[in-house]
């Protein structure tokens, strides 16, 4: 049985990928960080906690010796590095921590591969945030990078280190430039989940108003469950490479909120501009959404839209779930969680 290590199994993608690999017959070693209260709610929700082929291993990406020992102990064929300080907003407040985890941490794993077993296949979770102030529309693998946050800069360093280890040492290191991907397992600090959870709470009378930052930002949002399949396909290819995974559709934050409102019967209309803008439910006249500049970022990524043509051609990967379906799925999940008081 093939063994795979997934760093960051407590996160959204780690949980979906663990499920995918277990279903494919892998023995999975999922890493989590020592904290005072570890939370495995995602793998529990997917029904894989306690699976006989799932091993949970304590590990911190910032520790080189731990990285070496992890690889020595597991003898894995594949490593999926999903661990990161992944929240862009926080990266402005904690740029050094973000650089240490999201940037340099990746070199710990690459070094461990070089030292322990250069045959291990390595997946690096790169990001559309590396395109930042975009230099072309849509973005593809060859589009020049221009990151706009400490997170984007750290990820760009990790991306180039992966490419460098590929070219310098022949390591099978693939980098997936993934555009935003969401699901009911998304962390609640990220836009889509904050919206689905808040709209559910407003619908159930548990919240009055949803406060957001920049409503004009445009994102290419896909379904996380489909994106982890793309990660796996990258490591089954004949050679390591860099691939964009995206939907080739972009919508504004405002559009997503309107869509989420529609999923529960709100008819949102937008009035005012900039900090004065509000979202009003036409049926009741109630203001349900307003802007709070607290959620603005010092530098913003205005527009992301990716063309996944290369992944389609070479890996046979393509997204299937529409944004409307994804949004509906997320809102319904949050209605259920809020109704039963088991909100995560
Ligand atoms: P999450 O934030 O949900 O998960 C991140 C994971 O990394 C968590 O399990 C977290 O553990 C772990 N982690 C954080 N710091 C460390 C550390 N020092 N050592 C070990 N583990 C650590 O992210 P997603 O699942 O959404 O994303 C997965 C990866 O893909 C990330 O690298 C992200 O940057 C990248 N990415 C995500 C995209 C998206 O749209 N979701 C798009 C493009 C890239 P803990 O629970 O303890 O915090
Ligand atoms: P992003 O995702 O920064 O694209 O990074 P996020 O969902 O945080 O923001 C998306 C856009 O929405 C705007 N926005 C708000 N965002 C949040 N979180 N909260 C708000 O209240 C709010 N109001 C407006 C943001 O300014 C932004 O433009 C995600 C992460 O998963 C990264 O790890 C990953 O690499 C990229 O996606 C691709």
TrEMBL record:
<keyword id="KW-0521">NADP</keyword>
<dbReference type="InterPro" id="IPR016040">
    <property type="entry name" value="NAD(P)-bd_dom"/>
</dbReference>
<feature type="domain" description="NAD(P)-binding">
    <location>
        <begin position="5"/>
        <end position="330"/>
    </location>
</feature>
<dbReference type="InterPro" id="IPR036291">
    <property type="entry name" value="NAD(P)-bd_dom_sf"/>
</dbReference>
<comment type="function">
    <text>Catalyzes the conversion of GDP-D-mannose to GDP-4-dehydro-6-deoxy-D-mannose.</text>
</comment>
<dbReference type="InterPro" id="IPR006368">
    <property type="entry name" value="GDP_Man_deHydtase"/>
</dbReference>
<dbReference type="GO" id="GO:0008446">
    <property type="term" value="F:GDP-mannose 4,6-dehydratase activity"/>
</dbReference>
<comment type="similarity">
    <text>Belongs to the NAD(P)-dependent epimerase/dehydratase family. GDP-mannose 4,6-dehydratase subfamily.</text>
</comment>
<dbReference type="GO" id="GO:0042351">
    <property type="term" value="P:'de novo' GDP-L-fucose biosynthetic process"/>
</dbReference>
<keyword id="KW-0456">Lyase</keyword>
<dbReference type="GO" id="GO:0070401">
    <property type="term" value="F:NADP+ binding"/>
</dbReference>
<dbReference type="Pfam" id="PF16363">
    <property type="entry name" value="GDP_Man_Dehyd"/>
</dbReference>
<protein>
    <recommendedName>
        <fullName>GDP-mannose 4,6-dehydratase</fullName>
        <ecNumber>4.2.1.47</ecNumber>
    </recommendedName>
</protein>
